Amino acid sequence: MQGQNGSLSIVLRVRLAALAAVAALVCIAALAPSAAHAASCEDSWAKAEAGSWNVAANWSKKAVPVAGEEVCITAAGTYTVLLDEVNPSIKSLTLGGSSGTQTLAVDSTCSNSGETLTTTAGLNVEAHGALTLGNADSCAYNVYLKSAVTNLGSITAEKANGGQRQFQGNLTNEGTLHIETPASGTPAAFNGAKAALTNEGAIDLSAGSELLASDESTITDAAGGSIAAESGAYVFMQGGTFTQGAGKTSGEPVYVESGAIVYTGSGASTIATRGASTLSGNISAGQKLELQSTCSQSSEQLSVAASLSSAGTITMENSGSCGYNTDLSIAEGQTLTSTGTISAEVDAGGKRQIQGNLVNGGALDVNQTVEFDGKAPSLLTNEGTIDLATGERLYIYNGSSLTNAAGTIASTGTGQVYEEGATLTQGAGKTSGEPVYLDGGSLVYTGSGASTIAV
Fold first, then answer.
1. Fewer CB within 10 Å, N or C, the chain?
2. Residues of the chain with pLDDT under 50
3. Mean pLDDT computed over every residue of the chain
């Protein structure tokens, strides 16, 4: 027993000694600064006072940050660091401390016509951080931000004395992105090659300003996001993809020219498309999609490659004084099911054309003549209302057919539905006003809907 007790005592002492050593190591680790934290601030702004980036004494290393360094402007307090007359390229930058407002002003000057801030590992604007892009003097020169950016604070593209503000890298916005640069001549540009702007905060555009996205970039208006454009201000995408998620838009529409529009959420929004664009995803109630022909884009064609639904509003119209065509083209074998509104507007004129299968369970408002003429024989199934303004026509031809299933076709004055060839099926739906005209083709009755048809 004594031998066993002695052995047990030795084992316990060894284990206690090991535990004590582990505890000591844990305490040392807790007291020492973490390697990650130390590495993230190789050179820091030394004090909570305004000053120039270019002055060595303002930095913890008594040296202006150099390439490859991780830089921090995090001292608590309210002050502005001016970055001009130099184009730093560093590894990373963290802007924003625990209190106050820490502002980094990146400004072009007459002697440095294109002020550029470059990071290879990213720029983090924390909640108390503020980044401004502007001019330091009277010369209207550009400012370039070549960095991936995560924004929890504020970023402002200032109008100042002029010049363009360019964002060339992925941008995740959870704070506020202010756009003040004018749409005429020098809009703010998001133009990094295939760069992604994910908006989970606020994008605010002051009156007359523009955020221009190009070079195959993408913008996603995600959960928590808002895009608010004051009078004459807008987001304009040339090519690329705009994804409307749970975020919202207000004021002027978001414009997409010859790009892709993707709906993934139900955020209330208005998007206008021009040129040759594509549509995918389902449109929710409270979402408006405008098809606009313009004088510079002589026709608007929106292509739908796969079946989708719309509970929102689709409007076919002109923007400007030129009466050019708008075309909603649904791929062969696919169907657009609308429980919202599709509206063909007069505006400056031009043809309104729908090609492909369409199920109308909402309202189809024909205020301007609509041609329904699928490239392959297509079917318009009416389960809602088709309202025809006086003098306007829903013209169905090229082998396409109409089924008035459980809906209503109502014409005002001389408005009419005119089908040439193919099949007109009269089901439980009703007609009022002018008859539905069938010129050639087949007439099939499958229901008892009160109706007038002229053959």
1. N
2. 1-39
3. 91
